[in-house]
Automatic annotation (TrEMBL), chain A:
Description of how the protein assembles with itself and partners: Heterotrimer of A, B and C subunits.
HAMAP family the record matches: GatB
Example of a GO biological process term: translation
PANTHER family, per database record: GLUTAMYL-TRNA GLN AMIDOTRANSFERASE SUBUNIT B MITOCHONDRIAL AND PROKARYOTIC PET112-RELATED, GLUTAMYL-TRNA(GLN) AMIDOTRANSFERASE SUBUNIT B, MITOCHONDRIAL
UniProt organism field: Subtercola lobariae
One Gene Ontology MF term: glutaminyl-tRNA synthase (glutamine-hydrolyzing) activity
Assigned protein family: Belongs to the GatB/GatE family. GatB subfamily.
Name by which UniProt lists this protein: Aspartyl/glutamyl-tRNA(Asn/Gln) amidotransferase subunit B
Keyword Protein biosynthesis: yes
InterPro entries found in the cross-reference section: Asn/Gln-tRNA_amidoTrfase_suB/E (IPR017959), Asn/Gln-tRNA_Trfase_suB/E_cat (IPR006075), Asn/Gln_amidotransferase (IPR018027), Asn/Gln_tRNA_amidoTrase-B-like (IPR003789), GatB (IPR004413), GatB_Yqey_C_2 (IPR023168), Gln_synth/guanido_kin_cat_dom (IPR014746)
From TrEMBL, chain B:
UniProt gene name: gatA
Assembly: Heterotrimer of A, B and C subunits.
Recorded family membership: Belongs to the amidase family. GatA subfamily.
Protein name: Glutamyl-tRNA(Gln) amidotransferase subunit A
The enzyme's E.C. designation: 6.3.5.7
Domain Amidase: 26-488
BP GO annotations: translation
Top-level class of the enzyme under EC nomenclature: ligase
Gene source species: Subtercola lobariae
Active site location: K93, S168, S192
Catalyses which reaction(s): L-glutamyl-tRNA(Gln) + L-glutamine + ATP + H2O = L-glutaminyl-tRNA(Gln) + L-glutamate + ADP + phosphate + H(+)
Pfam families: Amidase
Assigned GO CC terms: glutamyl-tRNA(Gln) amidotransferase complex
Amino acid sequence: MAKPALMPYEKAIELYEPVLGFEVHVELNTKTKMFSDAPNFFGGEPNTNVTPVDLGLPGSLPVVNEQAVKYAISLGLALGCSIAPSSRFARKNYFYPDLAKNYQISQFDEPIAFTGSVEVELPDGRLFTVPIERAHMEEDAGKLTHVGGATGRIQGAEYSLVDYNRAGVPLVEIVTDIIYGAEGDAPELAKAYVSTIRDIVVALGISDAKMERGNLRCDANISLRPRTAPGEPPAKLGTRTETKNVNSLRSVERAIRYEIQRQAAILEGGGTIIQETRHWHEDTGQTSAGRPKSDADDYRYFPEPDLLPVVPSLELIEVLRAGLPEAPVARRRRLKADWGFTDLEFQDVVNSGLLTEIVETTKAGASAQSARKWWTGEIARIANQRGVDASSLVSPLHVSELIALVESGTLTDRLARQVLEGVIEGEGTPDEVVAGRGLAVVSDDGALIAAIDEALAAQPDVLAKIRDGKVQAAGAVIGAVMKAMKGQADAARVRELVLERASA
Amino acid sequence: MSHDLTRLTASALAEKLRTREVSSLEAVDAHLDRIAAVDPDVHAFLHVAADQARATARAIDARRASGDLSADETGAARGGSASELAGVPIAIKDVLCTIDMPSTAGSKILEGWVPPYDATVVAKLRRAGLIPLGKTNMDEFAMGSSTEHSAYGPTHNPWDLDRIPGGSGGGSAAAVAAFEAPLALGSDTGGSIRQPAAVTGSVGVKPTYGGVSRYGAIALASSLDQVGPVSRTVLDAALLHDVIGGHDARDSTSLRDEWPSFAAAAREGAATRSLKGLKVGIVKELQGDGFQKGVTQRFEEAVALLTAAGAEVIEVSTPSFEYAISAYYLILPAEASSNLAKFDSVRFGLRVNPPGGGTVEDVMSATREAGFGPEVKRRIILGTYALSAGYYDAYYGSAQKVRTLIQRDFARVFADVDVLVSPSAPTTAFKLGEKLDDPLAMYLNDLTTIPANLAGVPGISLPVGLAPEDGLPVGIQFMAPAREDARLYKLGATLEALLEEKRGHPLLSEAPDLAPQEMFASEEGAV
């Protein structure tokens, strides 16, 4: 891929106003699929969690999953949306093998939730209101694996395999209105927005919300328009691109920054932006052209005749409203107070998009401070190194177990980092890694004393120094003992024992 | 003996089975023999499941002998109405999925496809102990009024083999009218049960939309399709409707109503024969110009019988019916263009690889080009156009508005009358090939039946006699408000009884006997 020209970010913002829009797809964690009784589970043997409905077999008919409707209503309410007294499913027609019917059942002109907003917090603590146009229900498509090409994409592939396990998984698509005014904070706003949506769906308990697994997917629309002199009317909106394959919070931010720089360079060079989808490449940090996308894409939407309108009772809506978790901003304020973090500590957590992880880790039993320390420290460091989101590396439950092991003295911090590494490598739970790698602290004084006596015997000069009251000389012995114990000893306890044995 | 068994109505045969005067195996064998004798000429069947039918019959006979037929099968659970039909053979329109027989919907694109499941109605038949004989011919994907659009060749009308048996369910109607099966299942999207019934002298019912599950019926137009019974008597249709009707959780559009026994309604109608207090509306827009003379004549005679039996008959007007065909031929193709998109060779059915391979799109395209017939392509193109951006409002949108107007017309006249009446079809059976090259003329044949589908109301067609000019059957259609199917069975059975009283025998007994005597002769000769 030739490296396209990029304009320096600051200059791009000086010349152009970025205008944003997001489509976030949330996979709901219902037991069964959106329109069939197949398990809502993918991964595993391809084409096993399917029914005639998911395979689009002739004669099969969809039936709406009631739980998915409830989840969609809850999400709509959490986004401050109005809930439609009656909404309809529609067919989106297109020929592509990822949906066996060759149409997707979605909602078009009558979404279940519309007109809301979400407050998100920028890194400097400012609040920004993102307008929500709608949230609608639809079914996910199957997964295509393109085989034989160099890139793993359809271009150049010899053949493609289709796995319909994902076909029919319930989705809610959240569509923002056009977002103006993000200015130079556009990349940070994008990340904060997606992070907030993630916090909301996790708090609602309606999605596993793992971006790296595609539970939460963001399509980022961006266009630039030239700035006009004060007093002049604003320029008309520029042509937008829609960046897909943005599978982490970090990528959301990077992709937006990249597109701003790329589009600015093209516009500045007198070129025009092509309305198209762009494919984000995490490894190169670039986007590449996908398929052209025009407003005239004709999906021949029409009301799905196999389904009745969705008409939730007012009572149901109120029950769901009463069950809503608190709004993200209020929640953040409360958590900050509860946890007793400093402003800086808390901002660090929010900006890392790790609020949810810390909440979940504390729910699993850890203290907020230890949870923060691990997530924003060692885990974030590894995530950074690997260019992934911290949340994709390890589960809050495992972090909490790890912290418990440190607090009980089973692990030192240093050992705990090794255990963390094992957990990330998929060696199992912290307990399993401790067992598998034999990493627990040796708390058997007998074993330590034997090692200490051996070390003291090997270094009679040191023993003499200690006996002379030069306690700092003990360091050499402690070092030798720790080495003999392969680091699996509590250094403080070793020091106590060394002094004890030396004076014996 | 076997010849006699095929002449019995389903209820009469069921009675003989119940008293064990005949066995289910004998009944099945009689019908298989009849199929072997006449179907080479009639071509009602695309698939005959002789071995399975005999095996099922033996099992039913054994269970009946041991007193082991379940309550559902003996009808005890439903007041004696629902499965009086245990052990009775039945023909199934090929649009319905059957786990043990190919289900092609009359299309090459599904040739040989055996579904991994039974349609809900088929499962219900089996539970009630009915015995599927095979699958009947139809216009491809139920698009047509003559079965000439079947990819497997047309079905011939048992009254005149040079004529069409109606469509799309010509196979089911012909099978029943030719005594190849006492009962059949059909599907009616714009008249595909009622029009074939009319032109073959049989009885056909399109139930209220949502009254019978569509799960497993290969969809033509989802908002119009409805599965229903085909038979030789009103009571038989009612008995079958009792078996297949009711809510199905797999079909979101199926109604949750508790339905009355339709067989009870039919029996009551046949017994009382009085129509006092019944208000009947003759639909002004569904008669007159364009209706064959003999059709109008027999229709009027039947209406006179209604009046004589105490019904109050008035003329009502439903002005929007004028636009019904236009609206129908936008809504149906629109839905069909989407419903038929799944036939792309990826998961099932025909696959045609273009020369030299190609992309998935090329394969889909080559498959659909080879697998669909001309009428199906015509409607897919029409429907795709009607739904396209920029045309949607003018075509699909306007058609939906007309549909609303038609529903309002029904609502308005049903405030005044209990049922509506019209001829079932404008003409008697036309000649094979006569309208094949003129799609519009073919479409016009459904003028009378389409409004009921657009409004979701039930309709029944029953034979009223033969048109003097051609000696072919004429049908009368009654329509009732949604959910009032029982009203149709009661009224239908009354009229049927009055007609038979007047005529002295069932109309179908006048049909030519197709069984070639030579067959028996040659069998004898072989001995």
